[in-house]
Each structure stands twice: as C-alpha cells, then as structure tokens.
Amino acid sequence: MSFSKIILQWYSGHKRTLPWRGSRDPYKIWLSEIILQQTRVAQGTPYYLKFVEHFPTVTDLAMASEAQVLKLWQGLGYYSRARNLHATAKKVAFDLGGKFPSTYEELMKLKGVGDYTASAIASICFDEPQPVVDGNVYRVLARYFGIDKPINDSKGSTYFKRLAREIMDVENIRDYNQGIMEFGAIQCAPQNPYCLHCPLNQSCVALQKNVVKELPVKLKKTKVRHRYFNYLVPITKNENGANSTLLRQRKSKGIWQNLWEFPLLESEGDIDLSQIKARIPEVLPLHGNSEVELFNESPIVHKLSHQHLYTKFWIVQSNTDLTGAIPFDALEEYAVPVLLADFIKTYKI
C-alpha cells in the first residue's frame, strides 16, 4: 500500500471531531487555519467557537471594529494575525462580494494568507490538488523519508514542498491533507511518537536509523532579545469616588500593535524604586505627592518568539486628575496583552 493510502486509511479511523472539520465553508476553514497558526488545537478551538458565535459570516467579521477583533483574540498572541484576519475579512466582504477566492493562486493574494493556508483552503474547500506543508507534515516527511534538510530555510522548504506534491493523493486531496496533518499531530508527535504501533514503521527511515528524535532539522533560532518593562499603574479617585486608572494604545510597529497597556517605562535592566520615581514624569504628568509601590518583587518573564520580557508592575497612588482616566472595573472592556490581562485579574484595589 502506498504512503498516501496508508495515511488515508489511518485518518478514517483516528481523526478527531473538530468543529470546523467536515465543513467546506471557506470562511470557517480560513478562520480555523489562521487561529491555529502558532497555536495548539486545544487552545485554539475555544477561540474559533467564540469567533463563529460573534461573527457567523465573513461580512459580520468585516463589519466589526478592530477593537472587537483584538479583544476576542486576546491571549492567542501573534496579534498581527488578528489584524490581518480583519483586513482580509474586509477585502472578501467588500471587494469580493462576500465570496472567498476558489483557487490557490487567488487565495495567495489575501493578506495573511501564505502557501500553507492557501493550500489548505483550496484543497479542503475546493478539492484543488495542492499539498499542505505545516509543522506536522514537515515532521512526518522528514522522519519517514529520513530527510535532514533544515525545514526553516528556503532550500529545505522548497524540497519538502516538492516531495509533498509528488506523494499526495490527488483524487482525495481533501481527506489526504487533513489526514497527514492529523497523523503528525497524533501519531508522529513531536515528543514520544507512537512508533511501535505506527502503520508506517516498516518503511520509516528515521526509525530504522534510530534518528527519530533528531528529525526534523531546524536551523538555530534568531538570538533572543531581553527587554525590561516597568508598567506604572496609576490609581486615582474619579469624581464619583471610584478608583480610576490609565491605559494607552500601542501605536508603534512591533509587538502588541493597537493593544492597550498601562504607561510604560522600558529600561536597560532591572531598576529600583528611586529610579522609577525619577522617571515617572516621562510618562505620567503627576502633580503633588504620589506613593509608589512595587506589586511583584520578582519580574514576570513573558517569552515571545524572539524576545523575553522581564516585567514589573508599579502601583502609583495619586490625587492628580488624569486626562482620559477610566474606571478600574472597566479595564476588561479593552484588548490588552495577556501579560496585562493576568495582572488585572490578580490585582485587587
């Protein structure tokens, strides 16, 4: 039996029940694929369900504000995906009459849609014979064929894409593509793959050569940048006597664009209370005396793909009337990075 037929046979008996599986609606397939980029199925599924509930169609998503989209996305990370999602929804709804392109070539023109996503939508929704190559597929192919080419450089990715095209099942591309991705997620898992009961174990090169743990090969990642964030959390009484604070929207390119955060002091390293007090005027126009207290003695380490953030929250009690201050109990209405969302849940005035 051929490689592709074994994958199809395995898939028929092992596929998971997922809310988008079985659908040919390109909106739902596109939405699920964008959410699952850099995200595990278990984490991404509740987000998918929330988006479908709030925005049943691509036009509903297009009509939403960016703030609404970012708020629903909160906690998934890689927020450029959410901004691209919104931009593409507008493109499809307003420029394409609410209909997604039906070919790989046209899908590739949509913002935030790359080779993998275009291949997935084209094959699953429109039966176009395009091979999908995601992290799961790279792993299956690298191990089964014993390929030690790096999967994260241009030559390696081109090689794997060509191989994937040669072995795919053209007649049943929809189930085959879903099957090989599922196989990599469940059977040929990153850690502790089930080699003993694998239907491909008799001809798997990596298993025969005892190099399963070494494949696939990835080039070393970009050097991690270390950044030190000091969030100032101003606490003041509003005219009704309730506690208010201040959020500002990040407008610069980079992490968390258009999300909200407390006034931020970034430093070269860990800084103490006296240094914080000296720098408060850089971001907060306070008048009179204010009390500053460190909320967390040890910095919270928040790891992103190419940078680690070492974060401290400083509570600043003040009588200054802050322009744009918002009630503390209204913070949950704003789309904030998960780092700040966790603080807001924890901090009690």
Automatic annotation (TrEMBL):
Listed InterPro entries: A/G_AdeGlyc_MutY, DNA_glycosylase, HhH-GPD_domain, HhH_base_excis_C, HhH_motif, MIG/MutY, MutY_C, NUDIX_hydrolase-like_dom_sf
EC number(s) per entry: 3.2.2.31
Co-factor requirement: [4Fe-4S] cluster
Ranges where the HhH-GPD domain occurs: 35-186
GO molecular function: 4 iron, 4 sulfur cluster binding; 8-oxo-7,8-dihydroguanine DNA N-glycosylase activity; adenine/guanine mispair binding; metal ion binding; oxidized purine DNA binding; purine-specific mismatch base pair DNA N-glycosylase activity
Catalytic activity: Hydrolyzes free adenine bases from 7,8-dihydro-8-oxoguanine:adenine mismatched double-stranded DNA, leaving an apurinic site
Role according to the record: Adenine glycosylase active on G-A mispairs. MutY also corrects error-prone DNA synthesis past GO lesions which are due to the oxidatively damaged form of guanine: 7,8-dihydro-8-oxoguanine (8-oxo-dGTP).
Protein name, per record: Adenine DNA glycosylase
Gene: mutY
